[in-house]
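Chapter review. Work through the record for Pseudouridine synthase before attempting the end-of-chapter questions.
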Amino acid sequence: MRLDKLLANEGYGTRKDVKKIIKKGSVTIDDQVIKDVSFHVDPTQSDVIVDGIEIDYREFVYLMLNKPQGVISATEDDRHECVTDLLDLEYDKFNLFPVGRLDKDTEGLLLLTNDGQLAHQLTSPKHKVNKLYEAVIDQSITDEDIQAFREGVELEDGYVTKPAELTVQHNLEEEAEVLITITEGKFHQIKRMFEARDKQVKYLKRLQMGSLKLDESLELGEARELTEDELNQLLN
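Structure tokens for Pseudouridine synthase:
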């Protein structure tokens, strides 16, 4: 890409700003000072240094976030804190967005990236990507509940969900801890599925999306880049 476009994309200012930076000799490419704003460079192959600082160029970035409650799955909002507000400033230039969404009061695994193709692959219903959640329900779970999830639950608007797996971990009269696996992501889907069974979700956390599992060492609100193995499994 053109050198001025690269610097603008990397946050060095407007095209006018970066032209001044380049023309005053502040940029070296592979140890050679470049003053031509239209110079073409492959930032993945060359060392581009601006005022002594090397540009960290990557086309795509993939972050795992342990989303806390009270934060919305959006990139900007006038009233609420967004998941992108939790990220280090170094990621601002990549224009990351959440893959799918978690409700405001839902915790757990959220992938943020600027790779639109992967995002589509993970969220498109036709790919049937499994999403695993743990939940606390306000009463015990019955065999009829499990069978209803297995067959698909009719929601209040008449929509019948795709088959889901409901596994009971602890079952008490006044509360149950469960795991739920779904392959779609309708608005408030899990809450609405339990409401259709006259039950309420007291706590909800996503543990896994496709092959990607939440790193339990991440504190709520913390994020890290995916490992090479995690990324390869997602892409393949």
